[in-house]
Specification:
The complex is a heterodimer of chains A (about 110) and B (about 110).
Chain A (H helix, E strand, L loop, with lengths): L3 E3 L2 E5 L4 E6 L6 E7 L6 E7 L4 E3 L4 E5 L4 E6 L8 E8 L7 E2 L3 E6 L1
Parallel strand pairs in A: 2-11
Antiparallel strand pairs in A: 1-3, 3-8, 4-5, 4-9, 5-6, 7-8, 9-10, 9-11
Chain B lengths: L4 E3 L2 E4 L5 E6 L6 E8 L3 E9 L2 E5 L6 E5 L5 E5 L8 E8 L7 E3 L3 E5 L1
Parallel strand pairs in B: 2-11
Antiparallel strand pairs in B: 1-3, 3-8, 4-5, 4-9, 5-6, 7-8, 9-10, 9-11
Classes of the chains: A mainly beta (about 110), B mainly beta (about 110).
């Protein structure tokens, strides 16, 4: 089942912080975060694995609550370049590789 | 390392035709996954190939098929195109570490008229 992302959209001013949430009804092996700008491919940001391993960009932080099947992406001191649509992809361990949420559109204004 | 490449970048076809899309993964990556992205349905998994074998499959009709070659390059074929097949088709390559991180290519924008 498709994970649920919240909020659907958020508008920030440069320097403000934001949190994007991803929630699944299934037990998860991993959660993957991507950012996609209009007309471009999704860019890998972060992967969080069951058991606590993480891999991602230095300026991005995220959490993964395995028991609640939830993940949150933390964007601090936002920059104009952070604008885009953020997707979480979940790996429930079934036949589908990754199941993506509908995305959170982030707009950072000067 | 060079990133994931996809060809062609844009394609226009008419209903009933078939189309073949190509994806070259990052050097050394052996897994290639395909996704369809549309405004209404978002990103949906089509299938994954690893070492020339389909390893996972999403919930798409049999008109969508793929294959992988010994050099890990992959092709995706859609037969009897329908208007609803208009989408951005993305491939993602994976490999090189234990984290299953997927790296996406630029996509092929398919328009069915």
């Amino acid at each position: 089942q498709q994970p649920v992302q919240s909020p659907q959209a958020v508008i920030l001013r440069e320097g403000e912080d934001a949190v994007i949430n991803c929630s699944s009804s299934k037990a998860l092996y991993s959660v993957h975060w991507y950012r996609q700008k209009h007309g471009e491919a999704p860019v890998f940001l972060m992967i969080l694995l069951k058991g606590g391993e993480q891999k991602g960009h230095e300026k991005i932080s995220a959490s993964f609550n395995e028991k609640k099947q939830q993940s949150s992406l933390y964007l601090t001191a936002s920059q104009l370049s952070y604008s885009g649509t953020y997707f979480c992809g979940t790996d429930p361990g079934g036949s589908e590789k990754l199941v993506f949420g509908k995305g959170t559109k982030l707009t950072v204004n000067p | 390392k060079a990133g994931v490449t996809q060809t062609p970048r844009y394609l226009i076809k008419t209903r009933g035709q078939q189309v073949t899309l190509s994806c070259s993964p990052i050097s050394g990556h052996r897994s290639v996954s395909w996704y369809q992205q549309t405004p209404g349905q978002g990103l949906q998994f089509l299938f994954e190939y690893f070492s020339e074998t389909q390893r996972n499959k999403g919930n798409f009709p049999g008109r969508f098929s793929g294959r992988q070659f010994s050099n890990s390059r992959s092709e995706m074929n859609v037969s009897t195109l329908e208007l609803g097949d208009s989408a951005l088709y993305l491939c993602a390559s994976e490999g090189g570490d234990s984290t299953d991180t997927q790296y996406f290519g630029p996509g092929t924008r398919l328009t069915v008229l």
